[in-house]
Structures are given as C-alpha cells and as structure tokens.
Write a structure and sequence with these properties.
two-stranded antiparallel sheet, six-stranded mixed beta sheet, 24% strand, single chain, alpha/beta
C-alpha cells in the first residue's frame, strides 16, 4: 500500500529515494510509487543523472552519486578546481558544478511548470554535492524550495557561497567512519 511523504518520515523517504537513484528507471519507479510519486522523469545527460518525481503537492529532485565504473563520475569527483558559482556569489567545486550544468536546463524546464508544489532536493555522495548546488540554484529562481537532504556529500563550496544558500531546511547525513568522505574533505582544495 502506498504511503505519503510527511515531515516525520521525510529523512527516511529522501534516503530511500537517494538509493533508488542508482537503479534503472523501471526499478526506481517502484520506490517512488510506494510514496505516491507516480509522475517520474529520468534525466541522463553526459553521465550526469537524476530523477524528477512529483505528485499533486510535492516535487523531488534526486541525484545519483558516484558509480566507480563511470568515468564521468570519477572525473567529476577529481576536478577539484574552484569555479565561480552560477550567481557569482562564491566558489564551488568545479567537477560538481560541471555535472549539475549538464542536467540544469532540463531540471529547470521540468520544474518551471510546478511552481505550486513544494520542491525537495536530495542525493548521495556525488549526488549529494550536485543536490546542494541544484538546491541553491533553484532557491534563486523559485520561492518554494522546501528542503535539501544529502547523504555522505563532500564539501561543495567556499564559506561565501555557503552563506548565500537560501534553502530553509537543510540536513546532511554523514558517516564519520567513511574513508572516502574524509579523503575528499581533507583535499587541499582552496575554495
């Protein structure tokens, strides 16, 4: 039986959706349907992938994280040069920004007709970093960006950029034992 996403179960649902982003569209559909997100769009541009799912009340953008056998993902993770953010309000990780740039126009076009719904953004690992950049961009263009949930996301931007982030509800879940997360956090990235 399908359940509804609520404020109480939202962190759990966002985690499930972040995991579903690694699945093919047919298998991911089952997870989204379980929470009454029966409208779904899979976006795959140059190796950057995300799902946009929606119902009458909400839209969720879910970014897929690093798949080690996908060269575009590995390259995005390793492109640690700083890049000016879209709104010139600080610097962000160049590889993460490049990945969001690949899917941005399609996301923006899809979301633009859903201004009456609450927008939620989520992702795991590289997908969490992409979700963070996407949520920031959406918050510059839309007033209904409700929340950002990331799981195991590396650092995305410099302090100036972080302070300009307007999403009111942000939650980052990390595993303090993660060697990958600590390696990324300890890079001498001068943002």
């Amino acid at each position: 039986m399908a359940q509804k996403m609520t404020d109480n179960n939202k962190p759990y649902v966002m985690a499930l959706f972040s995991g579903a982003a690694y699945k093919n569209p047919e298998d991911a559909k089952k997870t989204f349907d379980d929470y009454q997100f029966v409208n779904q769009k899979f976006i795959d541009m140059g190796g950057a992938q995300c799902y946009v799912v929606w119902n009458d009340d909400d839209v969720v953008i879910i970014f897929r994280g690093t798949e080690p056998n996908q060269w575009s993902d590995v390259k995005a993770d390793l492109k640690t040069f700083k890049s000016t953010s879209m709104y010139k309000d600080g610097f962000v990780h160049g590889g993460f920004k490049d990945e969001v740039d690949k899917v941005w126009d399609e996301i923006d076009t899809t979301i633009s007709v859903m201004e009456d719904r609450q927008i939620h953004v989520t992702g795991h690992s590289l997908g969490g970093a992409m979700a963070t950049i996407c949520a920031k961009r959406l918050s510059e263009e839309y007033e209904n960006v409700h929340c950002l949930y990331t799981y195991g996301s590396p650092r995305v931007g410099n302090p100036k950029w972080c302070k300009s982030h307007k999403v009111s509800q942000q939650s980052q879940f990390t595993n303090q034992q993660s060697k990958v997360l600590h390696k990324v956090e300890n890079l001498s990235l001068q943002l």
